[in-house]
Every structure is written in C-alpha cells, then in structure tokens.
Design goal:
Order of helices and strands: EHEHEEHEHHEEEHEHEHEEHEHEH
Helix content: 40-55%
Shape: globular
Largest sheet: 10 strands, parallel
Mean pLDDT: 97
Number of helices: 11
Strand content: 15-25%
Distance between the termini: 6 Å
C-alpha cells in the first residue's frame, strides 16, 4: 500500500478563519514533514470563487511544493480541465515536472459547478467534449515532435510545446464517479481517482463498474494503480471522541459537496440538502477515525473490501481543524498505523 497526504483545499471556513498566508505555509511544512515520514504523494484540489478561498490554482501551488520537497510525488486531485486552456495546462505541468525532477501526477476532472463554468465563459454542456479533446491535446503536447489538432473546441497547427516534461509522459489520473465518466477513464486506460465521498458499498460498485469497463476495452485492471482518498484522524481517545473533535470541520466539507450536488449517503443515494441528517452519518462512516488500532482495522477492512486499492490518500487537514491537531494525527498515523499495513 502506498500512502499519500491531502488533498489540500486551503479553505478558511467561517467557524475558524485562518489567513491564507498561514494556510499555505502550514501546508508546505506539513508536506515536508510527511515526506520525511514516508508518505509517497501529496495532493491538491481545485474550486473557484468560494467565500472561504478554496484553492483555485493547483499548478502554482504544486510548484511551491516541488521547490520545498525532494522525493514526494505531487498530484492535482483534481484540476478541472474544461475550465482551462489545455496548452496552458500542458506547459504549466511540464514546468512543475521539471522543477520537481519528474514527480508530478496530473489528476484531471470534468467539474460540475455552474457558477464556475459561467464565470469562465464555458458551457457546462460542453465539458465532456472539452475534457476529451483537452486530454488528447495535453498528451500530444508532451511528445517530442510538433503536432496539429483539429477538434470542435481546440485547433492547433504545427505546434511544438516547450519545454518538455522530465517524465515521458507525466502520469494522468482522472477523477470520476458517474458511469459515463468512469467509462471514459477506462477507455483511456488511466487510473480512476476516487475522491473522499462514498462508503464501502458505493466504492465497490464504482470500482466494479471501472474494472468491467476496462476489460471491455481490452485492458487489465491489475495493471492500473487504484487510488482512494479518505478522511483520517488518529487520536488516543478513540473513535467517538475523535469524531466529536473533528465533526464540525469534516461536515463543513460535505455540506459544501451537498450544496453542489456531489454528496451521497451511506447507500450511495444523492444528498442535496446540507442540513440532511444523513450527511453527518455518511461523513462519519466513510472516514477513518479513532485510535491507531481502530484505524489499522478500518484500513484492513478497506483492503479486504476493495482488493485493488493500492494508494490511500489520507486527508489529515480539514477546514478549521487546528494545525497542531492535524500534525499530531499525521505523525501518529505514520508511527502507529503505516508500519502495520501491507
């Protein structure tokens, strides 16, 4: 099992606001410590125009992480490709890969918030086409030869994007949870980046859908990395005490997801009301909270239920959670949990 840290949203919530300068400094320090503790990846997440300052510039932040670290891989989880010019993404990603000496993972997603698409002047209806074309443009941009492209949304003639990345190519992972999007990931033969939403039965259905689609397209599921993001809080006080300490911060995340239409209950049914009582139940059940031993047992249950899982991205920093608490949780996890997970 590989372990990552993140994803970092850099939110400053109203229940415990923190200056963004401090949030950025704390993120860089925590990732530097995580690298020394043996975490293999660090992840960022993107949204725009939110009052809490949700991170809008993933590759800018990734470059700062790249300059601060030496070994940990740096991932975007996920960059909302239809909102961006794919050539600009290809260029920025290549520069981050160069600064990091080949450590970038470019995670991409469709996006879904109408407000974001309206502000960028992009039709939400066009996001799938822009995603498909954008991925092809990025992949062709990193090749050594100039290329031409004639699509519905993007057109280029004899274009040579420079400089080229260190990795040939930079790995691309795709975030998705609806069937058409999951089938797109399988068709491309790329890793499916599963976010923090969803309990085990929901995840089992998602992964089964992905694996069936991979086989349909002539690909082997065993050859593709399977990441998953989980909320984690390790404390000597036990699961119930730990949940009380972080409940406000964790549910803040998922209230936002519910408002945006991207939250599900324990059975995988949509939650669209941030005051729905099912939201707290799902937030608690899908996370990993408690003593080191309780966390070990929870991760082993995940492994048994999701045998293909091999990259667990651990979110220790929730919006509003004190930085010291987050660091203590992460250090406990590295010392008391990671060594006991194969």
């Amino acid at each position: 099992m590989k372990f990552g840290i993140g994803y970092y949203s850099l939110q400053s919530p109203p229940h415990n606001p923190v200056p963004h300068q401090r949030l950025c400094a704390e993120m860089l320090e925590q990732i530097a410590v995580a690298e020394k503790l043996g975490f293999e990846s660090a992840w960022l997440t993107e949204h725009h125009f939110l009052s809490d300052g949700y991170c809008p510039s993933l590759l800018v932040a990734a470059s700062a992480i790249a300059a601060r670290t030496r070994e940990i891989r740096i991932g975007t989880g996920v960059l909302l490709l239809p909102l961006h010019n794919p050539i600009r993404v290809a260029e920025d990603a290549a520069v981050v890969d160069i600064i990091s000496e080949g450590r970038l993972i470019l995670g991409l997603g469709l996006g879904y918030r109408q407000e974001e698409f309206d502000a960028f002047g992009v039709s939400l209806r066009d996001r799938k086409g822009r995603m498909d074309e954008g991925i092809e443009v990025i992949q062709r941009s990193w090749k050594d030869a100039p290329f031409s492209f004639q699509g519905r949304y993007y057109q280029y003639k004899d274009l040579n994007v420079t400089p080229k990345p260190v990795q040939k190519p930079i790995p691309i992972w795709i975030g998705a949870y609806q069937e058409p999007a999951i089938r797109r990931v399988a068709r491309l033969g790329l890793p499916l980046y599963l976010a923090s939403v969803g309990t085990i039965p929901f995840l089992q259905r998602e992964i089964a859908l992905f694996h069936n689609a991979l086989r349909e397209f002539g690909r082997s599921p065993q050859e593709i990395e399977q990441p998953l993001v989980r909320d984690i809080y390790v404390t000597h006080g036990g699961k119930e005490k730990g949940w009380r300490e972080i409940k406000e911060h964790v549910t803040y995340i998922y209230k936002g997801y519910a408002e945006w239409g991207s939250m599900v209950d324990k059975e995988g049914n949509p939650i669209t009301d941030p005051n729905d009582p099912r939201l707290g139940e799902a937030s608690k059940e899908q996370g990993i909270f408690g003593t080191p031993q309780e966390c070990i047992e929870a991760i082993k249950t995940l492994q048994q239920s999701l045998p293909s899982l091999n990259h667990l991205v651990c979110r220790f920093k929730f919006p509003g959670l004190d930085y010291k608490q987050s660091m203590e949780s992460m250090k406990l996890f590295a010392e008391k949990v990671m060594p006991y997970i194969e």
